[in-house]
Write a structure and sequence with these properties.
This protein is of the alpha+beta class and 366 residues long. 22% of the residues lie in helices and 27% in strands. It has eight helices and 18 strands. Strands 2-11-10-5-4-3-6 form a seven-stranded antiparallel sheet, with no helix packed on it. A six-stranded antiparallel sheet has the order 12-17-16-15-14-13. Strand 3 and strand 4 form a beta hairpin. Helix 3 packs across helix 7 and helix 3 runs antiparallel to helix 8.
């Protein structure tokens, strides 16, 4: 029988530090949407397991990412989640300023001869986009291209047939969960818990009633919704438009994929739901979920994301509760490891990929 990770992997502070360095600082991490960065000077910040990253749209229309750290004495440069500047960022501490492409522009009360400005621009972070999502990578070397890494996650590139870049956020939620990030991933990757924990979900997605994440006889990664449904919502008659690339036939299905290491991407007829998992400690995580819809639906005067949000938030609350219960259990001295039956195959595959990164890479900062 295949076994789970050791219990200590879900709560040991030393393992969490390894996860930061070997997984999150060397992987492509989704931090938001391009729709938040459409105009020159728009910026967002993102927390990548304790490192603040600043992403901005430059005057040349390019997106760039930097460590959110002033090069003078290390002050955090930008506060808050988002904003817009005209041409430069100014440090609140000593007013050193940086252009949108990260060049040091001004050093008030410091003579120009004292600082070689070309040597003290903001420190860059790798950045790329896919399907309207913004990804960063904190590797100090040259990471593999984003799309080639996405190809390693089952089903992710299959979702390119839906034009998620055209979608717009209709709602966002944030949950603080007292569970290690790997417990949240494991829970997403299996459905043995669904009949017990999610009675509403198995009514909507009958294939989940058997405890499987797949539907027998289908090879496209999708699972059928209940008869007459085209949305994962608490009302059967959605007034929302089908998302671009969705046909009347495919709209009767739900498609889900894990974007390694820590993002859930779920698509059905009228919506795409992106959940970004942000580890906040060895036994705690934050989940930021964007509900994305057809742009014409979002701009409509009678736009109502309520049925979709209510249903999926119910499922999320059910998941979060059992993940917190699992966290308490794995911290027991009695739990050395668990076991994986056949329907936990996706969880086991995640563990293998995770352990390969964590155990096979030199942990010196990179």
């Amino acid at each position: 029988m295949r076994t789970t990770l050791p219990g200590t992997d879900y709560h040991d502070p030393a393992i969490f530090e390894l996860d930061r360095e070997t997984v999150f600082f060397r992987s492509w991490i989704c931090v938001g949407r391009t729709e938040d960065l459409l105009e020159v000077g728009q910026w967002i910040t993102a927390d990548v397991v304790g490192e603040s990253v600043l992403i901005a749209r430059g005057r040349d229309d390019a997106l760039r990412a930097f460590y959110n750290v002033c090069r003078h004495r290390g002050s955090q440069l930008c506060d808050g989640a988002s904003g817009r500047v005209r041409s430069a960022f100014s440090c609140p501490y000593h007013a050193w300023s940086y252009t949108l492409d990260g060049k040091l522009r001004g050093t008030p009360n410091v003579d120009r001869t004292e600082v070689v400005r070309e040597d003290y621009g903001l420190l860059p972070v790798h950045i790329d986009t896919w399907n309207g999502f913004v990804f960063v990578n904190l590797d100090r070397g040259s990471p593999a291209p984003l799309r080639s890494e996405l190809a390693k996650s089952n089903g992710v590139l299959d979702l390119e047939r839906f034009d998620m870049a055209a979608l717009r956020r209709g709602f966002r939620t944030t949950h603080e969960v007292q569970a290690n990030w790997k417990i949240l991933i494991s829970n997403y990757n299996e459905c043995l818990h669904c009949p017990t924990v999610h009675p509403e979900l198995v009514d909507l997605v009958p294939a989940f009633r058997s405890g499987s994440v797949f539907e027998e006889g289908r090879g496209d990664g999708g699972v059928s919704l209940a008869a007459g449904r085209n949305s994962v919502a608490d009302e059967p008659d959605s007034k929302l438009l089908l998302i671009p690339g969705m046909t009347e036939e495919t709209a009767t299905s739900y498609y889900g994929a894990l974007v390694f290491p820590a993002m859930f991407l779920d698509v059905s007829g009228c919506e795409a739901i992106a959940s970004m998992i942000q580890p906040t400690g060895p036994t705690s995580s934050r989940i930021v979920t964007d509900y994305l819809f057809h742009p014409d639906s979002v701009s409509s005067e009678d736009f109502d994301p309520g049925p979709v949000v209510r249903f999926n938030e119910l499922v999320a609350q059910q998941d979060n509760a059992v993940c917190e219960r699992a966290q308490k259990g794995v911290m027991s001295r009695a739990f050395t490891h668990g076991i994986y039956p056949e329907k936990d195959a996706e969880v086991y595959e995640f563990d293998l990929r995770y352990r390969q990164l964590r155990d096979d890479i030199d942990v010196a900062p990179r």
